[in-house]
Automatic annotation (TrEMBL):
<feature type="domain" description="NIF system FeS cluster assembly NifU N-terminal">
    <location>
        <begin position="3"/>
        <end position="123"/>
    </location>
</feature>
<dbReference type="GO" id="GO:0051536">
    <property type="term" value="F:iron-sulfur cluster binding"/>
</dbReference>
<dbReference type="GO" id="GO:0005506">
    <property type="term" value="F:iron ion binding"/>
</dbReference>
<dbReference type="GO" id="GO:0016226">
    <property type="term" value="P:iron-sulfur cluster assembly"/>
</dbReference>
<dbReference type="Pfam" id="PF01592">
    <property type="entry name" value="NifU_N"/>
</dbReference>
<dbReference type="InterPro" id="IPR002871">
    <property type="entry name" value="NIF_FeS_clus_asmbl_NifU_N"/>
</dbReference>
<protein>
    <submittedName>
        <fullName>Iron-sulfur cluster assembly scaffold protein IscU 2</fullName>
    </submittedName>
</protein>
């Protein structure tokens, strides 16, 4: 499988790996077809994501998607309908092959689930 330079960079040097202690939002999503699992935790201040961390079990593209997702999320509002889309993740990774585009879907699903968790915690 041929990966872009961005996928290689985020796989070889993942950013924001781990979990935030006492996060303001958390989510774990999986893709039953391939077995990839992504755990995302967020720190949110004044409705803005100030910190994001991830843990992913999966292929290099899934790990790269988790890494780039955390970078793209920081500074965004949790009040946007979808703070980060699969298209943005795919583009930031230099375009994923059709066989690996599901990893950007996994990232978007994790973001949506974490934002839902945040709003639930806020009583919204």
């Amino acid at each position: 499988m041929r990966y872009s330079d961005a996928v290689h960079d985020h796989f070889d040097n993942p950013r924001n790996i781990g979990a935030i202690e006492h996060p303001d939002a958390a989510a774990e999503v999986s893709n039953p077809a391939c077995g990839d699992i992504m755990h995302l935790t967020l720190r949110i201040v004044d409705a803005r994501i100030t910190e994001a961390k991830f843990k992913t079990m999966g292929c290099p593209a899934a790990i790269a998607a988790g890494s780039v997702t955390t970078e793209l999320l920081i500074g965004r509002s949790v009040n946007e309908p979808i703070p980060l889309t699969r298209v943005e993740v795919n583009e930031a990774l230099g375009g994923l092959s059709p066989q690996k585009v599901h990893t950007s879907v996994l990232a978007e699903d994790a973001v949506k689930a974490a934002v839902r968790d945040y709003h639930r915690r806020q009583g919204k």
